[in-house]
Amino acid sequence: MAFLSDTLGRVKPSPTIAVTTKAAQLKAEGRDVIGLGAGEPDFDTPANIREAGKRAIDAGKTRYTAVDGVPELKAAICAKFLRENGLTYTPAQVSVGTGGKQILYNALMATCNPGDEVIIPAPYWVSYPDMVLLAGGTPVPVICGIETEFKLTPDQLEAAITPKTKWFIFNSPSNPTGAGYTRAELKALTDVLMRHPHVWVMSDDMYEHLVFDDFEFCTPAEVEPGLYDRTLTCNGVSKAYAMTGWRIGYAAGPVALIKAMGTIQSQSTSNPCSISQYAALEALSGPQEFLADWRRVFQGRRDLVVSMLNQAKGIRCPKPEGAFYVYPDISGCIGKATPAGTVITNDEVFATALLEETGVAVVFGAAFGVSPNFRISYATSDAVLREACTRIQRFCAALV
């Protein structure tokens, strides 16, 4: 009898975490490594949010809370959805979890049966397919290449839907590409979904506030109110408010689904950290002006990275609408060899050679479902990004 569960064989460790771990290991060994794998802001959590966490400790708010969130935070989430997205929810329609990942996982665990299909546009966040597999469902990736700016077309969505489809996972702006869907592009997708009433929508809006130029964020239930009763709108405080370690995600949707998610959570982690919940309450209810300042910083970094990568031989890098990632295409590097003799047969070989020969750590594209590409997180300083991109340019120029 095998000791480990058969379920473990259906999933793999997160490649993004693996890259970050490898970069940290090489740094510890004395190597000059620039890690561009981790997807978290380099800003400190704003002072007012930190102070709210301290006040919660001093006020003794350190005990168990309601399984899926304190009433004050749920009310603030409802206010946020109304204020920013024009969506009306009651606290009974809101679930708070230990990070956005748990929210998505709870929903899939609460709804997926063997044979249920989940449509996932690729490139995708590395965890989506594995969470579906853990929940017993079947991920259905749909390849969205550089020719469509890494965005799903209505025809692709229509072709992917079958009688077994249960969920469509939507992420805009996207991890890993930063691609954002305009209102018109999203409306074209929701028109397809309106023709298939058995398909539910899981909208991952984690990068909502990280959009650039004149791009305007929108979410499915906002664009098509007819989808309201079968949409789970998911978000969190980690990316926009630099609160990755606080571990608070949230979602709103139909009461029956929210209750089912609460049941899953009650038998896994129970309530999210009480202190983090009160910090998140301040994040959503407190001053928001700093978000515009941070967006300007991220936009400048995006422009720097896109410009420098497009000057690298064999690389083509689209300019994303949001998030803090770029997803350059390396088709022009495939088949070439490094001075050390390594033949670049795919993007994983490219990323490995880049790390070993230049000390720049990126995540290879196959981890996100579309190759040959790699992902860079530009959530670090201009100086670091400039040095990293210079090393990438030199690496590509040396390929023969």
TrEMBL record:
Residues 32-392 form the Aminotransferase class I/classII large domain. SUPFAM superfamilies: PLP-dependent transferases. Homodimer. CDD domains: AAT_like. It is an enzyme of class 2 (transferase). One of its GO terms (molecular function) is L-aspartate:2-oxoglutarate aminotransferase activity. Its EC number is 2.6.1.-. It comes from the Bacteria. Belongs to the class-I pyridoxal-phosphate-dependent aminotransferase family. It comes from Tabrizicola piscis. Keywords: Aminotransferase, Pyridoxal phosphate, Transferase. Its cofactor is pyridoxal 5'-phosphate. It catalyses: L-aspartate + 2-oxoglutarate = oxaloacetate + L-glutamate. Transmembrane segments: none annotated. Pfam families: Aminotran_1_2. Signal peptide: none annotated. This is Aminotransferase. GO terms for biological process: amino acid metabolic process.
